[in-house]
Specification:
Layout lengths: L1 H20 L31 E10 L2 E8 L7 E4 L4 E4 H15 L7 H12 L6 E8 L4 E7 L1
Antiparallel strand pairs: 1-2, 1-5, 2-3, 3-4, 5-6
Length: 151
């Protein structure tokens, strides 16, 4: 009986070993998981940064202070971010890093109304009103959003 038991254990072990070593025909190709379209046409969810726009220019003035952002995805080194309410004056990648937080929070797209854009941006900056609000956005789908309001 000891011989039969050893033979059974060896047989089961062999089956398990062979089953564990079996491989699939080929490894999955994860490069196909993300489809990247022509990145030269600007930012979209598919091209990586997820903003959905190629240009974003914002100026808010209130009580002789201002907030300015200037972002163009074709010239990221030229990005500028000024926030006189918080003593911020950044350029290039540092400016983009700060703008990125806002862009991902406010989520403006070509379907966003003027009122929604103003509300989201003012809320982001903690402002309840403004003296002047200017926004120009060029979306990746060639639509634009233009706001120029004074109170």
């Amino acid at each position: 009986m000891s011989f039969m038991r050893m033979l059974s254990i060896a047989g089961v072990s062999s089956i398990l070993l062979l089953g564990g070593c079996a491989s699939k025909d080929e490894a999955p190709n994860n490069d196909d998981a993300v489809s990247i379209e022509d990145e030269s046409n600007g930012s979209t969810i598919n091209t990586g940064d997820g903003y959905g726009f190629t240009d974003f220019d914002l100026t808010i003035k209130k009580d002789n202070k201002k907030i300015e952002t200037d972002y163009e995805d074709v010239k990221p080194d030229d990005a500028e971010y000024v926030n006189e309410f918080q003593d911020v004056n950044l350029e290039g990648n540092e400016a983009i890093d700060d703008m990125h937080k806002m862009f991902m929070e406010i989520l403006i797209d070509s379907g966003t109304t003027k009122e929604e854009a103003i509300d989201r941006i003012l809320q982001w900056y903690g402002l309840d009103t403004y003296d002047e609000f200017k926004l120009d956005v060029q979306f990746a789908d060639d639509k634009t959003l233009h706001i120029d309001e004074k109170k």
